[in-house]
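Protein data:
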Amino acid sequence: MVDSDGHIYRQFLCRCDCGNEKVVRLCYLHRGTTKACGCLRGKNGITHHETNTRLYRCWQSMKRRCLSPNDERYRFYGGRGVSICSEWMVYEPFRDWALANGYTDELTLDRMDVNGNYEPSNCRWVDMKTQANNKRTNHYITCNGVTKSAQEWSDISGIPANTLIFRHTHNWTSDKILAPVNSQKPRKPHKTDKYKSDIISWFQQGITKTEIGKRVNIGRNYIHASLKRWGII
């Protein structure tokens, strides 16, 4: 078809779930802006009066990332084959499911299987931290038969997530992956440690650090650093 401005567009004859038929432009079908023949509309064009609510915006956002190639997130959703169940193509069934399954304005819509579709059996309402731990790009680590994201293991162990990822990618064993950072490499005894009592005694007698160094064949700076480390100076 050609509109009044000379633009060419394609349109299709579509059959609504209610049985009515309607001619719809292809671009409206791609965007998801046309979802029915008009049977869902009330006298004022909207039946639910919830277009300004956060829940309605969540529903719109879900459709855009799955159905609109122009959406910047489409490649992570619709572009990967993630789709929306037919029931949720209409707002009211989605809203009813959300309110019956714990929706609040502080929670976000999360797919339990990140490769699955948007449908009641695969979705839940969670806080941002839980959703972040369920991202497809997360690094997962299995320790003692339990699999969690690196961030979850970090929260449990107190070890930075980047440290856990390094250990895992370098094939450390489970017990070493979760071992406290300070226990991995015990400090090697300093060469002054075996003379500790003598060095402290000599220093307290007024012998210079240079002379002490000569007695144990260790440089003056090492003697100074050791006395400082031992809390003598």
